[in-house]
Amino acid sequence: LGSEGVDKLCRAVAQHPALREMLLRGNHIGRPGAGHVGEMLKHNRSITKLDLADNSIGDQGLLLLLPGLDVNATLQWLSLQSNHIGLDCQEKLATTLRTNAAFRVVDTRHNRRGFPEQFSSDSGVDKSASGLPPLS
Q: Positive or negative, the Cα torsion across 33, 34, 39, 45?
């Protein structure tokens, strides 16, 4: 699929009212593709599951994805495993998880370092996933 393909796909699904899952595992979308997905998430109000595992988005790709994750209120399940994401950017993701109550599962396994220490949420929802610590 690559970055160009995911750009076209994201433009098509940005306003799609029925789409619930977007499974892009292993599609080589890279940093630019993560940016397209982030833009799509700013507008889509139906996706609840997003699998971006094995796409080599790296730190820069996660930084492009985060603005969409910050404002999307429907996404509950996100896989970012095996994307070469470092600890600094994983901490930025943790900040998003603290402020976005919609998330239930976030998988960050097999990245450059482990996920930051435990963090808490007022909602009391267990956001644990393989790779994420449980909320205290």
A: positive
| CB 29, CB 54: distance < 8 Å | no
CA distance 14 to 133: 31
What are the 10-residue block averages of pLDDT along the chain, 136 residues in total? Answer: 93 91 97 97 96 97 97 96 94 92 93 52 39 40
Q: What is the reported pLDDT for 17?
A: 87
Nearest CA among 130, 136, 60 for reference residue 98: 136
Residue 47 and residue 72: Cα distance in Å, rounded?
Answer: 9
From the centroid of its chain, how far is CA 74? 12
Q: Tokens representing 76? A: 């509950």
From CA 23, how far away is CA 115, in angstroms rounded? 23
Phi, psi of 118 (to 5 degrees): -55, 150
For residue 20, what are its two tokens? 């619930």
Paired tokens of 8: 């076209």
